[in-house]
From TrEMBL:
It comes from Amanita muscaria (strain Koide BX008). It is found in: Nucleus. GO terms for molecular function: zinc ion binding. This is Uncharacterized protein. Its main location: nucleus. GO terms for cellular component: nucleus. Transmembrane segments: none annotated.
Amino acid sequence: MRKHAKRCWGDDAVRLANEASGCDVAHKSVVQPLLRDGTITASFERKKGKVTYMHQQHTKTETRAEMVRWVSESLHPFSIIRDRSFNNLMKTGRPEYYIPLPQTVSRDVRLVFKRTRERIAKMLQEYEGCLSFATDAWTSPNHRAIIAITVHFQHNGMPLSTLLDIVEVPQSHTGVYLAQGFVKVLEDFGISEKACQHLLSVTADV
């Protein structure tokens, strides 16, 4: 039974169960978290520098979520999902492992972006304090005029900065085009009225 438990849940789960003061404690602190999300990292204090992985395979939904995180944070193209070496690494020893199509990952990334943008917009609309904005402008190697707009405020007592958008302006970085791009982003997030309550200035390239 012990060998079977180690194969299914891992050495850490068996060790924690042995260290528990009784069956009820072991069930609550070890078994229930495993049944809930397949991980026991929430059941014991993780040692500094130690990374704990699940002993169960991801569900299809979890795999898609991890793919979104991976390609987004590492700036990988969606086509990497069909990379031969990547598939060999993921499916060796478990050929049935689910890997979504690049089109599925692309759709999931757009969905996560849309929902995250909506959450940020709602948070800014309901924010009762002052919002500070900053812009940065540059010209891309293919001669396109780009501006980035960020917002800065306090959240739960901590300073928070987030990128609102990166937009292309139709012509050079003049004050008029910078202002138009800035106003468009404020309207997209539904916070133009909050910003208009304060004096705004836009610095243009000379």
